[in-house]
Each structure stands twice: as C-alpha cells, then as structure tokens.
Design brief:
Blueprint: H1 3-30, H2 55-62, H3 73-80, H4 84-124, H5 129-134, H6 136-154, H7 158-183, E1 186-187, H8 199-231, E2 235-236, H9 238-275, H10 311-315, E3 322-324, H11 327-330, E4 348-350, H12 355-358, H13 366-381, H14 383-392, H15 409-430, H16 436-459, H17 465-501, H18 505-530, H19 534-560, E5 564-565, H20 570-592, E6 596-597, H21 599-622
Antiparallel strand pairs: 1-6, 2-5, 3-4
Helix pairs in contact: 2-3, 4-6, 4-17, 6-7, 6-17, 6-19, 7-18, 7-19, 7-20, 7-21, 8-9, 8-19, 8-20, 9-19, 14-15, 15-16, 15-17, 18-19, 20-21
Length: about 625
C-alpha cells in the first residue's frame, strides 16, 4: 500500500466521520438539556419528550401551576418512582381508585350534608317549594358540577370544565333517558285519575304533560345552541356569560308563570266539580296540592349509591301505613329543578304486609341480605369521608327544628366539634394566604357559637330555632367548602392524567369527568322511574344539565371576572351536535310514537351516545 493511498483512505474516513458528527451534533442540539433556559419554550405537557433522568427537574420547573390539589402526582410519578414498571403498577391503579373515591365523595357530601342543610333553611324560612326547588335546592343538587367548574375556571382549566358540563349533558340526555326508557317504558299521556274528577281534568293533565315536555326540550335545545355559539371563538366574554345566566332566569320565570296559570285552571275545575257535587272532599286525590308528599318519618335522600334499592325501605314500613308522597321533597336531593306538574297529585299508598310486620318485625329476603351486604361494603368504603364530614360539617336537619328536640351526648359532641372545626375547612378552601386577623375572627365566632349551642341545647327547656338556622347556614357554607376541596383535588388528578396520557382536557371532561359525575344521576333516576315516576326522572334529566350548563358556565364566569379562554376542540363541537341530534330525534319521533318512550327509543338514544363518544375518541386520536 502506497503512502498516497493511505493518505486518501484517511481523508475519506475523516470526511465520513465529520458528516456523522455534524448530524449527531444537530440532533443533540434539538434535545433539551437540564438547563432551564433550554426549556423556556416548553410546557408541562412536553415532559414525555424529556430524557427520563431529567423529567423530575422538568416537572419541578414547568408543572408547578398544574399542581392545584393536596397530592403532588407529578412529584410522586416523576421523582419518587424511578422504575417505569413501578410507575405503571403502583401509580396508575392508585390514581384510578383515587378518582373513584373522589367522585363518590362529591355525591356523598352533597347528598348527606349540603342538601339537608339547604332543605332545612328553605323549609324554616317557608320559601315556596317551587321557588326553592328551582333555586336553592337546584343549586344544592348541582353543586358538585358547579363548584367543579369554578375550580377549573380558577385554575385556568376551562376546557376541562366545559367538557365535563357538555359531556354530562350528553350522557344524561342520551344514555340515562335511554336507560329509563329501556328499563321502564312510559308514556307522557298515561294518567290515572279518579272517574269522579271528570274528563276535563284528564284533558288538562294530558295537554300539560305534552306542553311541559316540549317546553323543557325547547329550552334545553336553546341552551345547547347558545353554549355552542358562545364557545365557537374560544372566548367567554361578560356579555356571553350574562346571556347564559339570563336564559336560566327566563327558564325559572317561565316555570313559575306556568305553574301559576296551571293552578288557576285547576282551581276553576275544582270549583266546577263542587258545584256539580262531583267532588268528594274526603277523596285522597287533591288537585290543589303542590305535590305528592312523603311523610317526614319516612323521608330519605336519593344520595349516590347509598339507597340503591328502596325495596328494603318499603319492607320496613308497618302494615297499612299510609304514606303521602311529595315529589318536590322526594326529589329535593337530586338534579330535578322542576317537576312535571301533572303528577303533582296527592296519592296514598297502602302497604299490606303480614302480621309479623305489623308487630314491628322486618321481613328479610335474599335480595335484602345481598343489598345489606352491598350497603355495608359501601358504608365501610365511605367511612373515612363520612367521619371527616361528621366532625367538620354541622348538620341540622329540619326534623330537629322542634322546640322539644333533645340531643344525646354523642350527637351533642359531634355537633359541637363540627361547629368549632368548620372554620378550618372554610379557611383552607377559600383563603389562600390567611392572616392572623382572619384566624382570630373565625376562632372567636366559632368558639362563641360552640359555647352558645352547648349552653342552649343542654340547659334551655325551649330551644331556639333561630340558633338552629344559624347552624344550618354554617353547615351549608362548610359543605360548599368541602365540595370545593374535593372538586379541586379531582381536577388535580384529571389534569395529571391529561399530562401523562397526552389526552386533551376536553376529551377527559367529555368522558371520565362527565360520566363519573353522572353516575349518581343514573342510579337515582332509574330508581325514581322504577318507583313509578318516570316523568319526574325525565324532568330531572333535562333540568339538571340545563342548570349546570347555564349557571355552571355563566355564573362561575361572572364570579371569576376575567375573560375566560376555552380551547374549543372538535370533540366539544361534535358532542353539542350529537346532543342536538338526540333532541331532534325525541322531539320528532316521540310525538309520532303516541308520546311514548319505548325500548326502541331507548336503544336509539343509547346508540347516539355510544356513536358520538366513539367519534370523539377518533377525533382525539387523529387530531
């Protein structure tokens, strides 16, 4: 080999090496280093692009604003768990369990503490039930969604909140109504009235059922359309937010006027019946009543899962006890903001049971035993949250508003402890940097109230209902604080899942967040329909999402005060169109089908939801 050939060969090798080195250097230059300056153009969602040994430093630097709850999932996943297998084995199942527990806690807090206190306030102040049902109790029922939306808006996660509200509306108006139609087919015109009440009354009720259905359907369709128009440019201005709130106010006014004219017409019918001697004052049916009343001694909450089967409740009633159902109170703990007025008729249900039950014995069946096992397991699961709520959220139910009601030692200890500790829940929830003056003021107020309650309830023969009202108001405020804390932690977990899986906030809101928050509605509305009140369940399926959409977006946006920017993904728009398609279907086909919701209607509605969800997932994958 000559020197020249060696030289040429070396030159060729150096040239090739130089090319490779330059290419490799350019690739390295594109990779971010551990220097924060190189991450300036990156966001928390880009953590997957960072080498694993730098991910901890990256999330500490970039994900601070995403950490809004108590648990720091980013630190646990990217800093504490080094092995990828440990991350998948430990973290993913754990966060799934946490999400489930948070959803249950939301429903439990609203059903067991917020709504009972709110109902006590409404009853004691003698607020008309149609007004309280459309305002106070409606807010209590929708508080998990509304407060979740507020937390999302406050933490700049508006897309997650809007996605949840639209997704919940999609799920409830398609899947839940469809499930009701499959489980309990019903007709809007099937009424059973006493022959003594005459044909005019039946015509009034049938006409009212149809008109109320069209009214609710129209308002819901209008609301979805307005939300879609307001979101189309990705900006929620003050004018748009005021428009949404105004539509809900218009809805409330329309219902109040509707009930006023309906009751006026009923009064005329009753007067006509009495003139013709066709009306018997002793009959169990009363057209002048405001609703079907459920006696206080047998009242219960339709809170999430805890009363999944009401057969055992009915079995525990003694022989031939007469129960008056009141739909407005029966539904006070759910998402129905109004009732179908045609069902507001007093009825008596007589339960014939054996002599053993008449003597106070309880009939146990295999189904009851299975239910008891399920309920015991559920009660055990919610024991931590129920215990925490018991000692931090004052609870004063309306049956305690009696001058002679006495508290035993356990009840008194729990009440006094919750009054004193409620201040810390409120401060932790709503005051980011409390000062010593705030602590002093809250400590003074709660200490004085605790002392006054102790002296009053233990020494006074006649108790003051005004003091109980103050405790109910304090319990209501504290329950809102608890729901806000839980909602914030829920959003914290969902935001981490969004970063981890690279899913958009909108699709998480449309699916996991929406379905999780709607499980309670699914169970309670199915139970209500199986108890023989499908129209009431139908009203709940329209009224609840309507409230959450209009006030959840409109009112929360006005409270935040700033211009709210929403990342309007194609899946959000797609969901709105599928909701409108479903409304169009039931608005046209149900009247054509003799105003019946049969199983075919149910299957079509569920299919619309399933296909729409599938389309949303495809949009998320390919965009």
């Amino acid at each position: 080999m000559t020197e020249n050939s060696i030289y040429n060969g070396d030159t060729y090798g150096v040239d090739e090496y130089s090319k490779v080195s330059e290419e490799y250097a350019s690739q390295l230059a594109e990779l971010p280093s551990s220097n924060d300056g190189d991450w300036s153009a990156m966001f928390c969602e880009d953590v997957g692009k960072i080498p694993s040994n730098q991910q901890c430093d990256f999330v500490v630097s970039k994900c601070g604003e995403y950490q809004i709850g108590i648990l720091n999932y980013y630190n646990i996943y990217y800093c504490k768990l080094e092995s990828k297998s440990y991350k998948n084995i430990i973290m993913l199942p754990s966060i799934s369990i946490i999400l489930l527990y948070l959803f249950i806690s939301l429903g439990y807090t609203a059903g067991e503490h917020l709504c009972p206190n709110l109902s006590s306030i409404s009853n004691y102040l003698k607020i008309p039930e149609n007004i309280s049902g459309l305002t106070l109790l409606a807010f209590g029922n929708g508080s998990p969604d509304i407060l979740s939306t507020y937390s999302s808006f406050q933490s700049s996660n508006a897309s997650l909140a809007v996605g949840e509200l639209i997704g919940a509306a999609f799920f409830i108006t398609c899947f839940i109504i469809g499930s009701i139609a499959i489980a309990q087919p019903f007709s809007l015109t099937s009424i059973q009235l006493s022959p003594d009440l005459g044909e005019d009354s039946a015509k009034l009720m049938i006409m009212n059922d149809k008109a109320v259905y069209i009214r609710d359907l129209s308002f819901f369709g209008l609301s979805i359309t307005l939300v879609l128009v307001c979101l189309i440019d990705g900006k929620l201005t003050t004018a748009k937010l005021l428009l949404l709130v105004s539509v809900y106010v218009l809805y409330v006014v329309a219902i109040l006027l509707w009930q006023f004219f309906l009751n006026t017409h009923k009064s005329r019918l009753i007067q006509d019946y009495r003139i013709r001697n066709l009306y018997d004052d002793n009959t169990t049916l009363d057209l002048t009543s405001d609703g079907l009343e459920f006696e206080d001694s047998y009242s219960f909450n339709l809170n999430i899962l805890n009363n999944i089967e009401f057969g055992s409740i009915l079995n525990n009633l003694t022989k031939k006890q007469s129960i008056k159902f009141k739909l407005s109170r029966f539904s006070a703990y759910r998402d129905d903001t109004q009732e179908y007025e045609s069902r507001l008729l007093d009825q008596e249900i007589n339960l014939d049971e054996d002599d053993e039950l008449n003597n106070g014995a309880i009939l146990e069946t295999n189904d009851d035993e299975e239910d008891n096992i399920f309920k015991k397991a559920f009660n055990l699961m919610v024991l931590p949250i129920s215990t925490a709520l018991k000692v931090t959220v004052p609870l004063m139910t309306y049956d305690r508003y009696h001058v002679n009601v006495k508290f035993n030692k356990s009840e008194m200890a729990s009440l006094l402890m919750s009054i004193f500790l409620s201040q810390f829940v409120f401060i932790f929830s709503f005051i980011e940097t409390p000062t010593w003056l705030i602590y002093l003021a809250s400590m003074s107020f709660c200490t004085c109230l605790t002392y006054v309650a102790f002296k009053h309830f233990t020494e006074m023969e006649t108790q003051s209902n005004n003091l109980k009202l103050v405790i109910s108001i304090l319990g209501f405020i504290t329950a809102i604080s608890c729901i806000a804390i839980i909602a914030e932690e829920l959003i914290n977990a969902l935001k981490f899942i969004s970063v981890l899986t690279h899913l958009s906030d909108a699709i998480l809101g449309l699916t996991i967040f929406a379905i999780g928050n709607s499980v309670g509605d699914l169970i309670s509305n199915l139970i209500i329909s199986q108890l023989g009140y499908p129209l009431m369940a139908l009203a709940a399926c329209f009224g609840g999402p309507l409230l959450n959409l209009l006030l959840g977006i409109g009112l929360n946006g006005l409270i935040i005060g700033n211009l709210i920017k929403v990342d309007v993904s194609p899946s959000l728009i797609s969901s709105c169109f599928f909701i409108l398609l479903n409304l169009l279907f039931i608005g046209v086909y149900v009247p054509y089908n003799a105003w019946r919701f049969d199983r075919f209607v149910g299957f079509v509605m569920i299919s619309i939801w399933g296909f729409g969800t599938f389309v949303n997932i495809l949009i998320e994958i390919f965009t």
